[in-house]
Design brief:
By secondary structure, this protein is an alpha/beta fold. It is about 40% helix and about 15% strand. Strand 11 (about 265), helix 8 (about 280-285) and strand 12 form a beta-alpha-beta unit. Bound molecules: nicotinamide-adenine-dinucleotide (NAD).
């Protein structure tokens, strides 16, 4: 499972709840359908907590709960930094081969979400589909991700790719002083739902692209494309080039491999790219600019959330908001220089300060003070 680069290491659920100041953690079960799930609501200062519903195999309910909590906390930061008026939440469903995901299970979960009265809104995530979202919607209105004919934004991964491209342009300008990606080399790890569209966008910008993927079917469209070189999976993180774009898994930068990374910039869609947040110092020392993952990969979440705006979903407005990720990335880099902190810490500060100022205006005594 992906790791979250949290500074505090939770010893147990209540400890984590207190240290990261969670509002609510709800255990859900339904004997008839076999549902076992956790809903974590981290912070609702900016608005209702939102975050996808993950369906995954966990060794224990404690593991599932900690995962839901880490992911919920991550959503607080993602929405806050992206300028979306939502808080952070997450739901995880514990997969059990003996009791597979079913309409009855999802509807039982939908009733749990409904009983929270709008404090948590759900969406698609690893292991869940738009069809699952429709089943949840049968029981509760608190579902953000929906097909277009249900009033939702539909598929969102291409918007995540657009956000990555905008962040990459800002990173290139900051680190290399260039206003275009023309002629630059970008090494893309994983050409799936986000990495694939990102490669097309990069080629349109005149970049050279190297790709690697563990799945032959993901690589197939790229094998004979001009401007694209397919390289071995084990080599992609360590190739020279201008940008390394992790678009597969989390935890790609570790204390063991950080010395071998050779691009000037890291900017990709994968969640939790740093195995540990302190690795940003190692990257800084090596002169590698790290574009913080939760700033870079917010495009899909931003696009999806548009349907909560007045008048419902508006594609043009949603895409314009996604493209603001370029400006946010520049602001985070400027904050890092101003406060003399790494870019990941600057991104956290950027989010914390927005929550603190909105919270103060609303008269909410916020846990976020936006202090160094
Ligand atoms: P995906 O499953 O569609 O694509 C991932 C690709 O990476 C697959 O083709 C897979 O074969 C490949 N892959 C897996 N392990 C690999 C490895 N070790 N080396 C090279 N390739 C490998 O997933 P996605 O939706 O494109 O998401 C990619 C990443 O971006 C994930 O970390 C995800 O959490 C994150 N993300 C996605 C979105 C979105 O809108 N889809 C939004 C935010 C963050």
């Amino acid at each position: 499972m992906e790791v979250k680069a949290v500074r505090e290491q939770p010893k147990n659920i209540m400890d984590f709840m207190q240290v990261a100041d969670f509002e609510n953690v709800v255990l859900c079960q339904d004997q008839a359908s076999g549902l076992r799930a956790v809903i974590a609501v981290h912070d609702t200062t900016l608005g209702p907590a939102a975050g996808g519903c993950r369906y995954w195999t966990y060794a224990s309910y404690e593991d599932a709960t900690i995962d839901a909590m880490r992911l919920a906390r991550g959503m607080t930061y993602k929405y806050a930094a992206a300028g979306v008026n939502l808080g952070g939440g997450k739901c995880v469903v514990m997969a059990d081969p003996a009791r597979p995901k079913s309409e009855a299970m999802l509807r039982a979960l939908g009733r749990y979400i409904d009983r929270l009265g709008g404090a948590y809104m759900t969406g698609e995530d690893v292991g869940t589909t738009l069809e699952d979202m429709v089943n949840l919607r049968l029981e509760t209105p608190y579902v953000i991700t929906l097909p277009e004919d249900w009033g939702g934004a539909g598929a969102i991964s291409e918007m995540t790719a657009i956000g990555v491209l905008e962040a990459m342009k800002s990173s290139v300008e900051h680190a290399l002083g260039k206003r275009s990606l023309q002629g630059l080399t970008v090494n893309v790890q994983g050409v799936g739902a986000v990495g694939g569209p990102l490669c097309s966008l990069l080629l349109d910008e005149g970049a050279r692209v190297r790709v690697a993927d563990i799945r032959a079917e993901s690589l197939a469209p790229w094998r004979d494309r001009p401007g694209v070189e397919v390289v071995p999976v084990e080599e992609i993180p360590y190739l020279e080039g201008d940008v390394f774009a992790p678009c597969a898994l989390g935890g790609v930068v570790t204390s063991e491999n950080v010395g071998r990374l050779r691009t000037k910039i890291i900017c990709g869609s994968a969640n939790n790219q740093l195995w540990d947040a302190s690795l940003e110092t190692n990257l800084q020392e090596r002169g590698i600019l790290y574009a913080p993952d939760f700033i870079v990969n917010a495009g899909g979440a931003v696009f999806d959330a548009d349907r909560l705006q007045p008048g419902g979903f508006r594609r043009a407005r949603a895409e314009a908001k996604v493209r603001e990720i370029g400006r946010t990335t520049r602001e985070v880099f400027a904050l890092a220089e101003q406060e003399k902190v790494g870019t990941f810490r600057a991104a956290e500060l950027f989010a914390e300060r927005r929550i603190a100022s909105v919270g103060a205006a609303k008269g909410i005594r916020s846990r976020f003070r936006g202090e160094i």
